[in-house]
Write a structure and sequence with these properties.
Layout: H1 7-24, H2 37-59, H3 96-117, H4 121-135, H5 145-161, H6 165-185, H7 206-230, H8 234-250, H9 256-272, H10 276-290, H11 299-304, H12 306-341, H13 350-373, H14 380-390, H15 401-421, H16 428-448, H17 452-472, H18 479-507, H19 515-537, H20 552-571, H21 577-600, H22 609-636
Helix pairs in contact: 1-2, 2-3, 3-4, 3-5, 4-5, 5-6, 5-7, 6-7, 7-8, 8-9, 9-10, 9-12, 10-12, 10-14, 12-15, 12-16, 15-16, 16-17, 17-18, 18-19, 19-20, 20-21, 21-22
């Protein structure tokens, strides 16, 4: 190889510097009608560098292998799990042969990335595989380990983009293996590929070498997280995603708002697995790190400056998304606690409650042990802030109303934050989803409330927040959302009706209820039936015909609605026999529908097993009740 002080070598270094500048800087300003102009120029410079390196090699007596990349034996992609990590084979990396191979491999690498960037994927793959061929002659060493990892990262991205996930997995797992073994056996700050074509006085510091090398490995983990997710290995994907986020903080390689949103998204996986400590930690870190992005620009500043306007919108939206993730956290904690505490009729099991309270002290001790072994985010500057935020909401299941209310209030605070951005004007679907979560928070909290009057008021809050929005929605454009709200409003009125009846029965039997109580009960009963019926009517054809076959996504809701309508009509209180008879006939009609539909469509029976059993029973009993009422009416006449 020619001397590093020679004019030829300085020319190569200058060309490389120009190629890097064209790729990283000038390409950002390329016109829309010629978007790759700078990258094409960079490609020509890289080709010239390649030819110069080959001529140096030939001049030193090496056998010419021909062409830009030579006629080389193709390299087969590795199989998943087979890590050909380059240790223990060929030359040492710092021999002249190894240096030449690494430099030629680096140019092949940059040519490969260039072709991929300009959407010439086959040519890009060829150059990247030629880079691997060059590295076959090298032993992994501080001089070339960075290139070993970078080229496999790029091939992993390339194959993942073609949906060849297992092939991508093979390259990326090899990159991971190379890094881990290098750090175990050497660990010194390795040469960066750019330094192959840099004069000695411009070589990187050890600190910058380490930063770039660690960034490459962080990318390996990030891409592996995507690969494992696509392979359905969700637990493994979450682990790699967590490690990626942790390393980004550790090496200061992150955009605060994007990091925060990724951490918040990861929290949702932990929440679905009941791992609330990890989920809370991700959310607390997301909130703290998002603050590093700075204050949201004022509306006045946003109106004057387009950049400030874009930044304002982005920060508001991302922070609102994080707030929504907090809402889900609080809601799931309450709902999972409810499942743990409810008896077979959905009420609070006090014996179970006392049992769990006795076990609470041990659970808190185990939480502390678990925390010490968990993957924690943050540096000394941010960890205290993260820990402080975590303390505001428990990751343990609430066992009574006081504890549940504390979780509820945190969730309600984030509802207010999310609604500030996701307003009805412009974000209809998002706004309503947030309202539905708010409603669900009230419903979960109501389970813990022993005072039935206060519980009923919580459900009334749900009606008050959802019904006005429902009435304002266009039925043509928001049919699916309206159906969701119909069903929720119907169920909420139904719960209120049951609570009012329970309260009344504590004071007197149903036959001697006062007129005010009967009127209130019937109002709630009719309101519930009205919304269930609206849901059923929304399934009808434009001609008003009920569907003969219910689609899978509406099968259970439709049959449950029929069952509930039947039950509600049978429970309406009236002193007028003719009205009683009309209500009982409507109830029987709907009970029969459930039974007959399941007879005609046997596959539906499993979806509504309990409702079908009760409907079958009522189809047998109600005609007797109807006949007795008819006989009484006839005798009175």
């Amino acid at each position: 190889m020619a001397s590093v002080n020679s004019s030829e070598w300085r020319a190569i270094c200058d060309k490389f510097t120009n190629a890097q500048n064209l790729t990283d800087v000038e390409s950002r300003n390329d016109p829309e009608n010629d978007p790759y102009r700078s990258k094409y120029k960079a490609r020509e410079l890289l080709r010239e560098i390649y030819c110069s390196l080959k001529s140096f090699e030939a001049g030193e007596g090496e056998e010419e292998s021909g062409g830009e990349s030579g006629e080389q034996r193709p390299v087969e992609p590795p199989e998943s799990g087979q890590a050909d990590d380059g240790f223990g084979q060929g030359f040492s990396g710092d021999t002249p042969e190894g240096q030449r191979a690494a430099k030629l491999g680096a140019v092949e690498y940059y040519l490969g990335v260039n072709h991929v960037d300009t959407e010439e994927l086959s040519a890009g793959q060829e150059h990247l595989m030629n880079c691997l061929k060059q590295l076959e002659t090298c032993r992994v060493s501080p001089e070339n380990v960075s290139l070993f990892i970078h080229v496999r990262n790029q091939l992993g991205i390339l194959w993942a983009g073609r949906d060849e996930t297992e092939t991508a997995q093979g390259f990326l797992e090899t990159a991971e293996s190379v890094y881990q073994r290098y750090m175990k056996e050497d660990g010194s700050p390795p040469t960066d590929m750019t330094e192959y074509f840099t004069s000695e006085e411009k070589l990187l510091t050890h600190q910058e070498r380490t930063r770039r090398f660690e960034m490459a490995y962080t990318h390996t983990l990030y891409y592996l997280a995507q690969v494992y997710k696509n392979l359905g290995q969700n637990e493994r994907a979450a682990t790699y995603c967590h490690s990626t986020l942790q390393r980004q903080l550790q090496f200061n390689q992150f955009s605060p708002i994007e990091w925060a949103l990724n951490a918040a998204t990861l929290s949702q996986y932990y929440i679905t697995k009941g791992r609330y400590m990890e989920g809370r930690h991700c959310l607390a870190a997301a909130t703290v790190i998002s603050g590093l992005a700075g204050e949201i620009p004022s509306e006045a500043a946003a109106q004057e400056n387009e950049t400030e306007r874009d930044r304002r919108e982005q920060l508001r939206e991302k922070r609102a998304e994080i707030a929504r993730c907090w809402i889900k956290y609080c809601l799931n904690v309450l709902q999972d606690a409810k499942k743990q505490l409810e008896d077979n009729i959905g009420e609070l099991d006090t014996d179970r409650q006392e049992e769990l309270k006795r076990a609470r002290r041990q659970e808190e001790d185990e939480e502390e042990k678990e925390r010490k072994s968990a993957l924690l985010f943050g540096s000394e500057d941010t960890f205290d802030s993260i820990a402080s935020l975590e303390e505001k909401v428990s990751c343990l299941f609430p066992l009574d109303f006081t504890e549940a209310r504390a979780v509820f209030l945190v969730g309600q605070n984030y509802v207010a934050q999310a609604k500030e951005h996701f307003q009805m004007d412009g974000y209809v679907t998002d706004h309503i989803e947030i309202l539905q979560d708010h409603s669900s928070l009230f419903r979960a909290l109501a389970f813990f409330e022993e005072d039935l009057e206060r519980r009923c008021k919580m459900h009334k809050r749900r009606v008050d927040m959802l019904e006005p929005v429902f009435n304002d929605l266009n039925s043509q454009y928001f049919l699916m959302i309206r159906r969701q709200l119909m069903f929720e409003l119907a169920e909420t009125y139904n719960e209120m009706m049951d609570l009012k009846l329970t309260l009344a029965n504590r004071q007197a039997d149903t036959q001697s209820l006062d007129n005010h109580t009967i009127k209130k009960f019937n109002h709630l009963c009719s309101a519930s039936a009205k919304f269930f019926q609206m849901f059923l009517d929304s399934l009808r054809s434009p001609e008003g015909k009920a569907p003969e076959h219910l689609e899978e996504e509406v099968l259970r809701p439709a049959l449950v609605a029929r069952f509930r309508v039947a039950r509600l009509h049978s429970r309406l209180i009236s002193s007028v026999p003719s009205v009683q008879l009309e209500n009982l006939n409507k109830a029987l009609e709907n009970y029969k529908y459930v039974v007959q539909y399941c007879e005609t469509h046997p596959e539906a029976a499993a979806a509504v097993a309990t409702e079908l059993e009760l409907s079958t029973e009522m189809v047998g009993l109600l005609p007797l009740k109807i006949n007795r009422l008819k006989a009484r009416m006839a005798s009175n006449n």
